[in-house]
Amino acid sequence: MESEKDTGPDLFVNQEALKKEYLQYADIRYLIVNDLKERIEQVVIALNSNPVVSGRIKSFSSFYNKYLRLLKSDGDYPKINDLLGIRIICPFIEDLSAAENLLRNNFEIIETERKGHYTFKEFGYESTHFLIKIPQTIVDEYGDPGTDIVEIQIRTILQDAWAEVEHEIVYKAEYSPFDEPMKRKLAAVNASLSLADIIFQEIRSYQRKYSKEMGKRRESFLQKIEESTDDFLFSQELPYETPTSDLGLDDINIVSDYSNITIDDLLVSALTAHNQNRSDEAINQYTKILELKPNNIICSIIYKHRGMAYFACSRYNEAIDDFSFSLELDDKSYKTAYYRGVVKAVLKQYSKAIDDYTLSLKINPYQSFCLFRRAQSYYHIGDFPQALADCENSLALEPSNESASKFRKMLRDKLKM
Q: Which of 34, 137, 25 is nearest to 85 (CA)?
């Protein structure tokens, strides 16, 4: 919003005239901000972290105060570039650059500002601000908003929290603490938030590596289950497609030096060895974790993982022992009960396997895979009606399970249905 420059030596400010001009575009600005907010939400939906997008229109009082402040410092009628504002709040630091790239690919960026002052007032907190040109299609639809620019801010949740508080107690109140202890307190709060952002990002990155390794280990375990049990039922091996992963084998190093190592490091290292079919090394890593004597919940998880590693190298009795230890420490672990049942089925201990599958289903009855495996065990002890009942229930939960469909047909043929 600009006015003609006064011809006199002093710049004249007419608040009523400015307010009239401001209100002239109020309805159009509201429509444009909402439209832009929706468009940006559709753009950043590509981020799995689900950033929050909000829009705002600068109030007249804020506009007027900024207008006077800039007028005083610049000595000329100022142009206010943040009449319309959009804020993108991301959970993690890594999302900031990703959101920025999405904006660059979808909007015309006029200016980029990366704020990160290191005075006690700003406390070093960073925030990325963009000025984007309002798309012509929006102007054509709603009309001229009195500005052709929108400011977009991208911050993490914690950066936004600090910015909001800092704005209220320092900037907005024009408060500049002279007391050194107060300066140190504010700096400490900011440093804590900055550190928290960094730690959250580290945890997020670690979690991603862990999840990928867990996924690969789980699929290899399921593959061995199919190879060990389904051949008893079908004349030919069921097709199995090994899932792919974009995590390279070199992304995580196997731990060899156990000094200054964490349980998380050991666990990811063990999972990596497990996924690379180095079961003995994985078992060694899991054992190292247990030697650190973590709490019962962690021990239960590690026993479960080590039991799966034992199963992978066909050390079935040791696998059963570890699954039993895991269940003693966490009797709500339905997956552990299921895994123990699988091992017993591989050993053709079908009645004992049924007991474990039943225990697992008592804890969590909505397991199509467990119902399917129990149906197999009932088949092997000759209880075809119960096998068919379990198979039907399994397909009710997961109709796309081709193995269960094939098994159901075989059972119906047996029962001449």
A: 34
Structure confidence by residue, pLDDT tens digits, 177-198: 556 676 677 777 777 777 777 7
3-state SS, 360-411, equals HHHHCCCCHHHHHHHHHHHHHCCCHHHHHHHHHHHHHHCCCCHHHHHHHHHH
Tokens read off for 367: 């397991």
C-alpha to C-alpha distance for 155 and 165, rounded to whole angstroms: 14
Percentage of the chain with pLDDT > 90?
33
Closest to 78 (Cα-Cα) out of 89, 69, 88: 69
Nearest CA to 152 out of 212, 186, 119, 108 is that of: 108
CA–CA distance, 221 with 304 (Å, rounded to integer): 12
For tokens 């401001």, what's the residue?
Answer: 22
- Cβ atoms within 10 Å, residue 194: 19
Predicted structure pTM score: 0.53
C-alpha to C-alpha distance for 268 and 212, rounded to whole angstroms: 10
How many residues in total does the chain contain? 417
Cβ-contact 360, 335 below 8 angstroms: yes
Closest to 263 measured CA to CA, from 308, 227, 299: 299
